[in-house]
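Sample intake — ornithine carbamoyltransferase
Collected from: Channa striata
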Amino acid sequence: MAKLLSANCRVSRFLQTFRSCPARGFSSVSLKGRSCLTLKDFTSEEIKKMLWVSADLKHRIKHENEYLPLLRGKSLAMIFEKRSTRTRMSTETGFALLGGHPCFLTTQDIHMGVNENNKDTAQVLSGLCDIILARVYCHSTLEELDKEASIPIINGLSDLYHPIQILADFLTLQEHYGSLNGLTVSWIGDGNNVLHSFMMAAAKMGIHLKIATPKGYEPEESVLQDAQRLSKQHGTQLFLTSDPMEAARDSNVLVTDTWVSMGQEDEKKKRLNDFRGYQITMQTGSVAKPDWTFLHCLPRKMEEVDDQVFYSSRSLVFPEAENRKWTIMGLMVSLLTDYNPKIPMIKF
């Protein structure tokens, strides 16, 4: 009974985030035919439309048990140079749930980059499927695929950006807080691809961003310059420091990620030493706002966040992981169709 009541409360909270909110012209925003390599390329209205579609699909499929074959007859090529749990499962099951046919392809399954160049692969797949999601080492691979393909390309992760993770984070925070506008998010960790994606989108959603990285692990300078411009344009705060406690102070959300990404295994010993003092604990949260929560894109290691925070009621990591599915579904529907949500516009 307790579990049932808890589930009902979550559904009620979810409904409250979009009830009685007018669409305000967002129905006219179309993303059909676009690619998504970085959220830098999208306006605040376009990102909000993605999230609105995602919330709509989640409500109608999960809570109303509707069957929505919006992608029936369409096929998806999933190119994975890197292994994955959440990206693979969310994309593969989500595309199938919408009536489409996903094809999972590793470097052992196709010739891309070995016996066939990226240009030829992009043109071949453009004639065989409707959309490509690629999880790659180098962002330039995605840019080449996008240049040569005649179908949308989605960045499933690259060394520079991880946009689909940020969409899931935004939906999770919107569900929890009821709105994104005015939140302060503190990133405590490496200046990596996930952080870069936060920096390309936070200001557009009215989110203040505080960043703590060890010296030598700051975000890319070009990304920082873009983020500073966006922050000024949208009237939000962007703050950088090397002190984790300074970044956490008065924050609503504490976020971290792995300190040793795939391909950096040789640097592990040095990185663990350089990131000493960056583990997120309840002490870190003690200087944050009373309603602070925690996010991590997973997989997580103990040195990044301790069990007391990770498994606490403040941790949103598992709803965040589930929302990877609803937001990738929302993104794919947005890029492939002119679908407009049936629920009222969610609050931002």
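Post-analysis note: Residues 164-259+267-320 form a domain with the Rossmann fold fold (CATH 3.40.50.1370).
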